[in-house]
Amino acid sequence: TACSSKYVLSQVHPMWQGPLAVPGGDRQSPIDIVVRMSVFDSELKPLVNDYDPDTCQQIWNNGYSFLVEYDDTTDKSTLKGGPLQDKFRLCQFHFHWGESNAWGSEHTVDRRLFPAELHLVHWNADKYSLFEEAVMEDNGLAVIGVFLKVGKRHEGLQKLVDALPTIRHKDSVVEFNRFDPACLLPSNTDDYWTYHGSLTTPPLTESVTWIIMKQHIEVSHDQLAVFRSLLFTSAEEDVQKSMVNNFRVQQPLCGRTVRSSFS
Ligand SMILES: NS(=O)(=O)c1c(F)c(F)c(S(=O)(=O)CCO)c(N[C@H]2CCc3ccccc32)c1F
Ligand SMILES: [Zn+2]
To answer: In this predicted complex, what is the ipTM?
Structure first.
């Protein structure tokens, strides 16, 4: 199976041409979370996030997603608790979405797809001094995943949506301040699934403790439509491509256990 071979050829992905061999490859992400196979772990604590909106720096289109970047040179925006032993610093958040509301998320729950998924990327500042170091280490990263559903308008998201037309093309960046990412978290952050996996974009390193929220957030159809108005391509390119379906195909579980913080 794909798990046994030393190299896992990840499927061709819109972001990079041709299959990409990933060394090791038995802890890849994303995955389908099979609820009845997840194991309740009473040792799992509530998440403790302490984000400082003043550390928000910029929002940019990197040709794969749009990301909001935070100043991670101090311990101002941190995550601890949950399955984590150390204190992690928020470095950025980004989203994955589809061309239609029928799909777009990277993870699924009992094969259920969501139109989009938010990822808040943190790195272990107790053990490492730079994100780039932590990316290579087993316990280096922690990514919170939140599913988005189409429903009522998300007031907190609107400030971000209003900035997207200014970064339509790849490599465009605009200053973005005072955005509190906590407003994008669901009201209940005590119920989550957690497993060990990887980044879902290069370098695909198996350094991520994934923390997937059980409760989704709601955004309006129009807000999601603005995500789809972004472009993969830079202003110079003559063929413009809509930024949609920027998710990786699902990877084999390879015997991993997904734990739940709730029974
Ligand atoms: N789904 S995910 O959480 O695995 C994930 C992404 F899906 C994604 F798109 C990005 S990125 O920065 O937009 C593109 C870089 O590969 C990152 N960025 C990470 C990976 C590499 C890197 C380097 C510096 C800062 C952030 C990141 C990411 F962690
Ligand atoms: Zn992501």
So the answer is: 0.93
